[in-house]
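Quick illustration, no need to memorize.
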Amino acid sequence: MEVILIRHGQTAGNLARRYIGATDEPLCHDGIVTSAKSGIFLNVPLVYASPATRAVQTSQIKFPNARTLLFPGLREMDFGVFERRTADEMADDMRYRAWVNGECFGECPNGEGRIGFTARTCITFSEIVAENLDRRRRYVIIVAHAGTIMAIMERFARPRQAYFDWHPTYCGGYQAHIDDGTWGITPRLTDYREI
């Protein structure tokens, strides 16, 4: 089975380089244009998406005839008190410096940390994959967020790469093959390529 992981188009906060996780921003003009220019596919029947407006809009633009199933577990990390702020704005915030220096594993104050976020994301992804393997579907399309895609790829892709090495472009991501013969034992995404 093929899995296609697509990052949403840009929002105003993304363009300003703000942390936009739990904040529910719509696509900006550039995001709408990027979503359309990256390809519109009329024959896709089903897409899985984060319930964030930016992911739903991207899905609707790229796959206008698809039924979109929303999965809260595919949401971006909740950056807590760092939401809607830029790294420059937080340069003197000791909480932010500690979080970044700890490779973002610790919890954001009033938000999530990478460990819990990755667990949530990967459990949801595994459920989607298992359901689709059982139904013998040829492919699964997921429209979500950079962090969601990075967490999935870090956990399941072979050969392994670090979390930040998987950072996708807007409306980009990865297409990967699931080795369904070993999915239940040794989960892995193989033969992946950047899209």
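The beta strands are 2-7, 46-49, 67-70, 139-144, 173-178, 189-194.
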